[in-house]
């Protein structure tokens, strides 16, 4: 039998020993694991509420209950042959079971692969195949979509996928998650728990390539990002974190997010919908103290807040990140919501920057913060990797105690995305202020940041090229007053192809089975693409053209 953990580990680049030693000696890596962290919090305060899931009849799980559930689910999964190092694709909406599943997998040493609820057949099949997943965990349905049908298709196509587990409704041909938990043997679990330096999970990259890349994170490094964030965001055991964004995304998971809140012994409240009519009553009822939003939602909230009948006075901190928050919008946060804005500029690969709660208001509204750790190394370089003087705009490279040294199972890509000495090329174009704060000025990666949702141009272009009438395609960003950016696809049709309308191209992409946010917002037919001096296609010129012709939405 293959050692699943050895396999997973062998594909995960890691920190050279001298760096690992340094991070341990500095106290960043504390030698904790997720399983141990939950067990300790449950022992310290078993009756304190850990997770509130207001959906349906509403559930309130204490730390003791979450810990017991994780243990019993781990035992049940182990009895079904899920072992340390197995990859398990988890695609759940904001429901309490998300934490039961994830902590059970952590306890087993199996590796969650965090899919988003928006992902569809193409993405899920890829995650299952590429990771060699043993299991896939879904909600029966959510947002009008039946995940059991998706699972049935994927299971037929990926023979290695042994289990599909379903929560929140009839499991259909699969097993209900609720039937899995079992009592662990009286003499303790039949497996060895993971160690702090072990891999904990695979997170998804926003990506700029044809397929999303996977990000291997360890217990040590991720837990540092949790407590480091907690210190900067004022999270302690009295905090109440409202999880508005999809729970599996790195921002609501760890900045400081649900896992940060659980690390602190605080309370997590799950928000089933991000709209003010759902979120505001929850803030009042649960006395929410902090939450995290992407800029488009922050705009909606600041517009809705002045007229709301709900009491939002418990809210101390609003984190906004995932995409650039305009200065103008940032200035509206304090007067409308009555709380401190904290800008977050982070990435699933690691580095997270926060404005500090005691930064001057000007810094809070005009910068994207500074790194969590004194050991986060920041370089701002020109196109040839030469360091630029402070204040000049260039490419952001970073290395540090919670930034990965390479993507999972992607050696060729790693050679491009990381420098020889281990700095990650973020693809972001930034400027450093004299106070060490970063200002995001743009992006060099071929990606569209659609209100925080990342769209890899190449991925969409590949789907467009699969259309029989399409000769060539280029996808670029165009401005959108609400999302910040939206996607515009420039398409050259084949000579002699039957006439086709833009809307048909969009429909075609939709039928390719991918997340709806990747469908181009606009399709423009052209005869040729603009070229650079050396004859390459100029995405810069296409972006300018899209910007000139974009209609306000
Ligand atoms: C977060 O993570 P990802 O992995 O979905 O996306 C990372 C990218 C960054 O490289 C940058 O291009 C963009 O998203 N980004 C921002 C930003 N925050 C993220 N661009 C401008 N301003 C910001 N404040 O998006 C993420 C992960 C953890 C915390 C927060 C966000």
TrEMBL record:
Keywords: ATP-binding, Ligase, Nucleotide-binding, Nucleotidyltransferase, Transferase. Pathway: Siderophore biosynthesis. Residues 459-536 form the AMP-binding enzyme C-terminal domain. It comes from the Bacteria. One of its GO terms (molecular function) is 2,3-dihydroxybenzoate--[aryl-carrier protein] ligase. Pfam families: AMP-binding, AMP-binding_C. NCBIfam families: DHB_AMP_lig. This is (2,3-dihydroxybenzoyl)adenylate synthase. The lineage of its organism: Bacteria, Bacillati, Actinomycetota, Actinomycetes, Kitasatosporales.
């Amino acid at each position: 039998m293959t050692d699943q953990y050895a396999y997973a580990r062998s594909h995960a680049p890691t920190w050279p020993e001298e760096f690992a030693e340094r991070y341990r000696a500095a106290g960043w890596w504390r030698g904790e694991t997720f399983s141990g962290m939950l067990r300790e919090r449950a022992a310290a305060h078993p009756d304190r509420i850990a997770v509130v899931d207001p959906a349906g009849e509403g559930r309130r799980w204490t730390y003791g209950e979450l810990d017991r559930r994780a243990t019993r689910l781990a035992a049940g999964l182990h009895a079904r042959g899920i072992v340390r190092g197995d990859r398990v694709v988890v695609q759940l909406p904001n429901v309490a079971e998300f934490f039961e599943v994830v902590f059970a997998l952590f306890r087993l040493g199996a590796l969650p692969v965090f899919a988003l609820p928006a992902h569809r057949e193409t993405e899920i099949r890829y995650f299952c195949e590429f990771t060699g997943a043993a299991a896939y965990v879904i909600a029966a349905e959510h947002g009008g979509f039946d995940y059991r049908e998706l699972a049935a298709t994927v299971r037929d196509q990926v023979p290695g996928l042994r289990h599909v587990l379903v929560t929140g409704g009839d499991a259909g041909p699969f097993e209900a998650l609720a039937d899995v938990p079992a009592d662990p043997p009286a003499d303790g679990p039949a497996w060895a728990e993971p160690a702090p330096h072990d891999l904990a999970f695979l997170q998804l990259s926003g990506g700029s390539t044809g397929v999303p890349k996977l990000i291997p994170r360890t217990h040590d490094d991720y837990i540092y990002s949790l407590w480091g964030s907690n210190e900067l965001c004022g999270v302690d055991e009295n905090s109440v974190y409202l999880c508005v964004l999809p729970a599996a995304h790195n921002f609501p998971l760890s900045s400081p997010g649900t896992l940060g809140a659980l690390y602190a012994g605080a309370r997590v409240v799950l928000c089933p919908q991000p709209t003010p009519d759902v979120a505001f009553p929850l803030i009042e009822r649960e006395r929410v103290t902090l939450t995290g939003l992407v800029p488009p939602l922050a705009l909606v909230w600041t517009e809705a807040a002045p007229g709301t009948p709900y009491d939002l006075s418990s809210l101390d901190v609003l984190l906004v990140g995932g995409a650039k928050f305009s200065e103008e919008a940032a200035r509206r946060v304090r007067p409308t919501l009555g709380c401190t804005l904290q800008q977050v500029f982070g990435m699933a690969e690691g580095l997270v920057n926060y404005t500090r709660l005691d930064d001057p208001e000007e810094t809070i509204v005009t910068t994207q913060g500074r790194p969590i750790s004194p050991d986060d190394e920041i370089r701002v370089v020109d196109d040839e990797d030469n360091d630029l003087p402070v204040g000049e705009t260039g490419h952001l490279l970073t290395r540090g105690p919670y930034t990965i040294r390479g993507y999972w199972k992607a050696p060729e890509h790693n050679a491009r995305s990381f420098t020889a000495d281990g700095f990650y090329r973020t693809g972001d174009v930034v400027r450093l202020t004299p106070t060490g704060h970063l200002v995001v000025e743009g992006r060099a990666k071929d990606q569209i940041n659609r209100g925080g949702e990342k769209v890899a141009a190449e991925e969409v272009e590949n789907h467009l090229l699969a259309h029989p009438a399409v000769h060539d395609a280029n996808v670029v960003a165009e401005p959108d007053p609400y999302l910040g950016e939206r996607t515009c696809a420039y398409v050259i049709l084949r000579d002699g192809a039957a006439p086709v309308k833009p809307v048909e191209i969009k429909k075609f992409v939709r039928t390719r089975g991918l997340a709806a946010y990747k469908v181009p917002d606009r399709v423009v037919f052209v005869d040729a693409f603009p070229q650079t001096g050396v004859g390459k296609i100029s995405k810069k010129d296409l972006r300018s053209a899209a910007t000139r012709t974009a209609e306000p939405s």
